[in-house]
Each structure stands twice: as structure tokens, then as C-alpha cells.
Amino acid sequence: MSNKFKNIELLAPAGSSEIGIAALKMGADAVYIGGEKFGARASAVSTSKDESNKIKNLIDFAHDNSKKVYITLNTLCKEKEIDEFLNYADSYYEMGADSFIIQDLGIAKLIRDRYITGNKDFRNDKFEIHSSTQVCVGDIYSLDLMKELGFSRVILMRELSLRKIKGLCSYAKKINLEIEAFIHGSMCYCISGQCLMSSYIGGRSGNRGRCAGPCRHPYFLDENSNKEVNILSMKDMSSIADIANLINSGVSSFKIEGRLRSKDYVCGVVQTYRKYIDLFLEDEKKYYDELKKAKANDENFLYQLHKKGGFANYLYKHNSKNMVNIK
Questions:
Q1: Per residue, what are the HEC states of 127-174?
Q2: Where does a domain end: 233, 261, 292?
């Protein structure tokens, strides 16, 4: 493996500690998981009475195998919740979580001051904060702000072109920021999860972890129509054919979406991307040879794991009717 690419990470979702351990065994380098509070997927099955013990076991398993666990604390926080938030964060910091994924920039500053530049010396090993995709980082000025706030990694918006990603990676390298990008899973019709539709229609805010997914529902296009259409439901992202371009662009962490999906789904997606990433790291020619031979079968396998009208992404086309799961 070239030293140039030695730090490439495959990051998998974990709706539970069981799924997290399975994903790590299948080849993920790290997993991200949410607890009972302050996560953008409040309905994920990781919430349980013995949640803390299970996530601690996951963290211990990961560290025993030289892998990592990131905790999603990526909802917006009300002022009256700040003390509760920080006490809750303390528990995962003490468990040894490698990073918190954060959307709220005020909380990010508090976390930075508490664990990174402050005097709250719970532990000696390295701890990081990563900016959630819901921060909507898509330009160099946002990268500068993330650096100033103490983030060591930025999770990019899912709506960026390959050309834009390459430019951001180049700038991020100059200021010593890691870039993480989604490679597979759900996409939002809105800009990178910044949606108010669920809150407006049903009083459940996605920015508070309670998205009802109204974009997935069929709608009548007008009052005279007798046919419902999934006009807002995006196809899933898939990027096995883009791994080489993304790595060469400077992306260092590849994120799979899906904390609400099954263990079989997560393991199948991890297994597939592990194969293509490893082939690229071993020999780029082997990666392209495998694509020619197995891309159709592998994409069909991924589709069978979660049938959603096909695959798409924003890497080469900004908008298209072919990106929407219209039935």
C-alpha cells in the first residue's frame, strides 16, 4: 500500500452495538452510533436501558482491534439543555469514544473547550470532534470556520460534485483538516439534511432527531390528480465506481449512511466497499479490472439489500429527474 493512501477509513453506521461489532468484523475501520439522547436518529435501535454498557462494550471491542467508535451528538441543542448535554457527553468521553459528531456550532465550541483545549483531563488518548454533514460545509470559508472551532474532520455535504470535493480536499490539506464523504445510502431532497418539512407538517423536527421522513411519502401533484407520485423521494447514493476518483481527490474517510437499517444491510454494504477500497489500495489497475468484471453484480447485490428505485449521486450531475425515486 502506498503511504499516500495509508489513512483511508471505511466508516459504517451502527443502529445498535451488535450491528457495530458486526460491521467492524466485516471490515469497517470505524463505526458511528447514537445513544439515547441528542442524536439525529432518535428512533435508531441503539436506545435501550442498558445502552451505556452496550456502547462501552462496542468501544472496547473496537479499541482491542485497533478500530474506532464515533458518537453522534448531532442535533441542535436548546440553551436549557446545555448542562444535560455536557454531562451526557462526559459519559461517552469517559468510555473512550474517539470522536463526537456535532452539528450545533455553539456546542462544538463548548466541547472543544471542555475536552481538547480545556482542563477536563478524563483521559490521555487523542479525542476529536467531527462536523456533521448537517453543518453543510461546501466552501473554503466554512473549512476555515471548522478549523477555528476545533474540528479535526469535516463531513461534507452530500450534494457536492467531484470537482468541488477535490478543491475542498486540497484546501483542507493546507489547514490540516480531514475530509469525510458519504459514499452509500440515503440522500435527502433538501440540502444535506437541513429540512423543516417534518417539523412543519407533523411537529417532528429532523434537526432534533425526530424526522418523520415526509419526503419518502407519495403525494398528489395537484388537486385534480388521481395518481400519487414519490416526487420528493431520492434514490440511494452508490459510489463503488467512484472510489478511485474520491481517494485521488483527497477524501480520507468514506461514510456509509444507514443507522436505521438492518445488520444484513450494513454488513453487505461494508463487505462490498471493503473489497473495492482494498483493491484500489493494493493496485489501482486491479480496482478497475474488478469494476469491469463485477460492477453490475455488486450493484445488484447492494440494490437487493434495500430496494429503492436504483442508485444515483451528485458527483457528476447536480440535479436530474433520474435521481428521484418516482414510481
A1: CEEEECHHHCCCCHHHHHHHHHHCCCEEECCCCCCHHHHHHHHHHHHH
A2: 233
Share of the chain above pLDDT 70, in %: 90
pLDDT of res. 305: 94
- Asked if pLDDT for residue 307 goes beyond 60, the answer is yes
Domain co-membership, 225 together with 127: no
pLDDT tens-digit readout, 127-144: 999 999 999 999 999 999
Q: What confidence tens digit (pLDDT) does each residue in 136-167 have?
A: 999 999 999 999 999 999 999 999 999 999 99
pLDDT of residue 118: 63
In whole angstroms, give the CA distance from residue 54 to residue 92: 12
Helix H, strand E, coil C: the string for 232-297 is: CCECEECCHHHHHHHHHHCCCEEEECCCCCCHHHHHHHHHHHHHHHHHHHHCHHHHHHHHHHHHHH
Q: Is 119 found in the same domain as 38?
A: yes
Q: How far apart are CA 50 and CA 71, in angstroms?
A: 16
Q: Give CA–CA dist 77/73, Å, rounded.
A: 9
Q: Name which of 91, 81, 252, 286 is nearest 176 in CA terms.
A: 252
Same domain, 92 and 7: yes
Own/partner pairs, 218-223, CB within 8 angstroms, 24+ separation: 218/327
